[in-house]
Amino acid sequence: MRAEVQPWNAITARLEMVSGAGVGQTGLSPTAQIKRLLDGKYWNGATWQVGVTSVVMSEVDAVNEPGVYEAAVLPAQLSYSFGLKGYRFQVAEATKPALEYGFILQQRRSSHDDVVTDHVTSGTFGHRLAMALGVGGQFWHRIKSPTYDVEGRLLTAQMVAYPTSADADADTNEIGHIDITVTYDVNGNMATLKAL
Description:
The protein has helices at residues 125-133, 165-170, and strands at residues 2-7, 12-16, 31-36, 41-43, 48-49, 55-56, 58-61, 65-72, 87-93, 98-107, 140-148, 154-162, 176-184, 190-195. By secondary structure, the chain is mainly beta. It folds into two domains: 2-107, Immunoglobulin-like (Sandwich); 111-195, no CATH class.
C-alpha cells in the first residue's frame, strides 16, 4: 500500500506499468477506484456516487513518460474540509499482474498557490481578500460560529460575506467565508490572528 500527500484541490491516482526490464508499458487501459473516506462514495469520472465503481485511467505521455497512467478527480468536485479524512484508491490492469492500493491524504493548499488576480471567483485568494477588505464590490459581513476559551477570549469564528444587508440579517445567500483562528501568549495577550 502506498500513502501520499496531495493538495486538496488536485487528487490524482497514478500507476506506473513497467516490464521486467524496466521499460514503460504503453497502450494499456488500467482502472482506478477512488473512494472518498468522508462519506464512502466513489468517483465515477463526473461526480461522487454511492456504490463501488471504477474509471479508466489515462496515459500521461506515451513518449516522455511511457507506462504512467492517471485518474484525476475534477477540481470542481473537490472542496477542502477539516473533517475530510482523505481518499483510498485501488488501481488495476486486467491484462497484466498489477494491483495496487493507496491512501491519499489531502493537504490544505497554501494561499500562495492561489491565483491572486481573481477577486470574483468564490474561494480564490483574491476573492477572500476582497471580502475581508470590502473592495471589489460591497460585501456585508457577519461573524458566525464563535468559540471561546474558559476566560471568554475568542478562539475561532467565521467571517461570512453576503451580497446585501438583508441577506446578512437573514443569514441567506452566503457568497463566501473566512475562517478565523486566534492564539494567545502565556500572558493572555493575542499572539496570532489567522484569517484563511
